[in-house]
Amino acid sequence: MLQKIIGGHPDIATLPEPWIMLHLAYLLKSTGIITEYDAALAREATAGFLSHIGASDELLVEGIRAQASVLYERALAFHGKKIFLDKTPRYYNIIPELDRIFPKARFIILLRNPLAAMTSALSTWFDKDLEKFSQDENYTLDMLTGPEKLFVGIRLLGKKAVTLRYEELVAAPDSVLKRLFIKLGLAYPENRGKQLVHKLPSSRFGDQSISNERWEFRTCVAEKWREILDTPALKNFFKQYLQNIGPELIESLGYSYDDLIEAVCA
């Protein structure tokens, strides 16, 4: 919903999760990717190539920026807009690289109660099947490493990042959205009640259950995660999840570890 609201601005183009920067940014990484050709070896070879032509990684960054710009500029030209909003959740893996490639970019990081985020993943993609979820390495990494990488990214980006919390957004959308638009240097649409959100093309990526044409936030949605705690197995799973993340990180992200533990132990 936040993507659709921002995408309703007359200067902004946005599309379902592009993922394109994951391919490009991993050219700067020597770990975290498995390929047929051996990505780590390829990274070493690329470093050698750069040294042989009297260049550094900065030339590689410049090349990645040029390639990405071709794609983004086509999207802007196609839609007749000035700014492209790329909403791809797994960019949490490449925040430092994105900052190198696009040093003038602004980042919007939307945080959410980790139990609510886990509930959304379990319900949307796994029909609350804990076994299927546990067997999906990508989603388990999202839930376990995502929060820490977001926290590290927020500290790294500093003023380049606008950090929002989902719970605050649904509780006071006007004030939170106005703050967001001001920090992005964009005019805030005052006629919120009549403002239509941007319609995204149909895609398998992103939450397709959000089909509202108008801005609609309900505070009760922020607490909907509590409804899933209806079996001992789920409660125990959520408790272990909180313990794996740890109280320090949860508190650093702005949530009460004690309150969450109490909820799953009730």
* Broad structural category: mainly alpha
- Cα-to-Cα separation, first versus last residue: 31 Å
In terms of per-residue confidence, which ranges show pLDDT below 50 for 5 or more consecutive residues?
Answer: none
Specify the biggest β-sheet: 2 strands, parallel
- The H/E string reads HEHHHEHEHHHEHHHHHH
Multimeric organization:
single chain
- Quote the average pLDDT: 90
CATH H level: which superfamily? Answer: P-loop containing nucleotide triphosphate hydrolases
- Strand percent estimate: 5-15%
Give the % helix: 40-55%
Shape annotation: globular
The CATH class assignment is Alpha Beta
Total strands: 4
Can you put this structure into words, describing what you see?
The chain is mainly alpha-helical and 266 residues long. Helix content is 55%, strand content 6%. It has helices spanning 2-7, 20-25, 39-52, 57-79, 95-101, 114-126, 130-135, 137-157, 166-171, 173-183, 219-222, 232-245, 247-252, 257-265, and strands at 12-14, 83-85, 107-111, 161-165. A two-stranded parallel ribbon has the order 1-2. The chain has a two-stranded parallel sheet with strand order 3-4. The longest helix is centred in the first third of the chain and has 23 residues, at 57-79. InterPro entries: P-loop_NTPase. It holds the Pfam family Sulfotransfer_3. This is Sulfotransferase.
